[in-house]
Amino acid sequence: MSLIRILLFILIGFAFAAKAQLLQKADTAFAHGKYSTAIELYEKILKKNKEPQNNKTIYYKLGSSFYSINKYKEAKEWTEKAIEEGYSDPKAFLQYGEILTLQSNYTAAKNAFQEYQKRSGDNTVKSKIVSCDFALSGKKSAIPLEVKNITELNSPYSEFGLAFVNDEFIFASSRLNTKERQDEYTGQGFSDVYASRFGSISKKWKEPAKLKGGVNTNYNDGTFAYNSQGKIGYFMQCNGSSGNKENCGIFYSLYDEKENTWSKSKVFEYSNPNYNIGHPAITSDGNMLFFVSDMPGSVGGKDIWFISKKDGIWGSPVNAGNIINTSGNEVFPYVSGDSVLYFSSNQHPGYGGLDIFSVKLKNNTINGPVTNLLTPINSSADDFSIVFGKSILEGYFCSNRDGGVGQDDIYSFNRAPLILNAIGKIVDSETNKPVANVTVYFKGDNGIIDSITTGSSGEFNFKDLKPDLKYAVTAVKSGFFSDSKSISTIGVKENMEFSKKTGVDLDFGLLKISKKEIVIPNISYDFNQSELKQESKIELDKLARILIETPKVIIEISSHTDEKGADEYNKTLSQKRAQNVVSYLGSKGVPQNRMLAKGYGESQPLKKNAVSEEDHALNRRTTFKVIKNK
Question: Which residue has the higher pLDDT, 554 or 363?
């Protein structure tokens, strides 16, 4: 064998050894959760590897690594590649389904989960299939909420672990300041705890600054909880002071309000280097601390636990139980009003990733059931770390949903302004033609009046109705009788259009003011009687409303009889009938001094010498006409 061939074999051997060594490094990084490092090494291997058919395991691990650091586009591409190349582990379909769920592709995700179940026989995936069906059902929050990204506080990296300390807003951030401090697990900076205030005058968030004192370390400091009575802050710290530890623990620190600084932190007594403990949440009295751990006795991957304090001494940790905890992960607890526990889970039925749930607390015990907060707070991505402001309809949470500034972002939520609008059309009641330049007034029972004017089409669309009010809606135009209707927004919880289309008729037919005699329809009396029938009052109620809304006109109410009977008798009868109409209108609020009652008997027939009953009926009529318009 020539020297050249010997050297060539040696070089090939070195290449295989180098490749094997690089793969070992990548696999070790992957096994220890150092996903950013693993990605870099696997991608380097793939660039050198000339046999792509043997790379399916690397494809899967790349997909898994990208998935773990919330880069779902890349995770989907590599996981698909692994499946296409025939990667045999059924977990590829489980991972693929989870990624598809995070991208809101619930139908495809459900298919992937079913394929995983068929190949693995693992029935625990049924909960994820149920979640796909839940998401496809399209359920939304019953209360309209407006969700906004707090761009002033977010960075291109991750913000999470929210809390309030008096008027300061506390959060953790892994914003990267220098390349040297990059975390090989996440590819981001090591997280620290920051604070900011919302300016009451500027209406802007102040530049976030790290907490002063002993809270922040050189490594990962995270989720914060504050007990205002004891002035104690509890927070999560990972990797230890040296950065070499893999598990997380809870630390605590005392707050000096006068100096706005924190004491040197100490390890909470239940932290244990053999397992993770973190995400502290404390009740207002400081006597019950919830946390997350994978300690022995956990139901799933990460469970919610709690400990209670009695006579100043913490008791033993208690698992919160299987009403909350599942075979998945339950994380980021938060206690509101000491009566409701909020938390995130990737196993309870939801929209994908982590969803935020609530459950009632009573006497330090879970008083189920668990309730999904629904959209728009929850999404197909990870949603977690909720805290509330002054009410349960305003607060903040974190999410890595699409459209954010960075990885995990802080979002605010508030009750969204209800969109309540009133739509109608105004026509001339005689010609049925649209009437322009009609002012439509909306007077709320709070005394506030607003208005809108019709255009050439006679239509109006008033978009500023307020919730929980009764409105008088009045159409006014010079030369026409005004008219009004009433609507109510009391109890309306969702966006609503008040219109004929939705069963609320706000169309008006306005009557021109003229000296012409106008027949009031459907006014009837029993034979030889002057008392109004019940059906007559419906039309008179409408007339009363119109007269009240048009206060400057004075009218004559005229009553006419048929030609049957004696003249004098008919005149007396018609006068009584006219007077009864005036009295009724007066009882409905029309001033008596604006109405004149006049009985004409049979002196003004529409059909003289009537013979048929139809003609007699035409002659028996009640009318009104304007005799003065101030």
Answer: 554
Q: Which pLDDT score, from 0 to 100, does residue 19 have? A: 62
Local structure of 579: helix, strand or coil: helix
| CATH entry, 145-415, from 2.40.128.50, 2.60.290.11, 2.120.10.30, 3.40.350.10 | 2.120.10.30
DSSP letters spanning 405-433? SSSSEEEEEEEPPP-EEEEEEEEETTT--
Q: For domain 20-136, give its CATH number from 3.20.20.70, 3.40.50.1260, 1.25.40.10, 1.20.1250.20.
A: 1.25.40.10
The amino acid present at 549, given as its one-letter code, is E
List, for residues 415-440, the tens digit of each pLDDT value: 888 889 999 999 999 999 999 999 99
Q: Is the pLDDT of residue 495 over 50?
A: yes
Residue among 69, 75, 123 nearest 97 (CA): 75
pLDDT of residue 12: 46
In sequence order, the 6+-apart residues with CB closer than 8 A to the CB of 626 are 513, 514, 515, 553, 554, 555
The answer to whether residue 1 scores a pLDDT higher than 60 is no
| Token output for 567 | 């003249």
Distance between alpha carbon 490 and the CA centroid of its chain, in Å?
A: 20
Report the C-alpha gap between 194 and 191 in whole angstroms: 9
- Residue 400 token pair: 């890595």
> Please, what's the largest Cα pairwise distance for the chain?
146
Stated as kind and residue range, the H or E segment containing 541 is: helix 534-549
Q: What is the CATH number of domain 420-510?
A: 2.60.40.1120
Tell me which range, 176-190, 230-244, 557-571, is most confidently predicted by mean pLDDT.
557-571
Cβ 158 vs Cβ 3: under 8 Å = no
| Maximum average pLDDT range among 160-174, 177-191, 386-400 | 160-174
As a whole number of Å, the end-to-end CA separation of the chain is 125
Cβ contact 372:357 at 8 Å: yes
| Beta-bridge mates of residue 189 | 182
- CA 51 – CA 593 distance, rounded (Å): 103
pTM given for the model: 0.69
Element (H, E) at 31: helix 3-31
CB 287 within 8 A of CB 230: no
Q: In the CATH hierarchy, which top-level class contains the domain 518-629? A: alpha beta
Report pLDDT for 6: 46
In the chain, where are the structural domains located?
20-136, 145-415, 420-510, 518-629
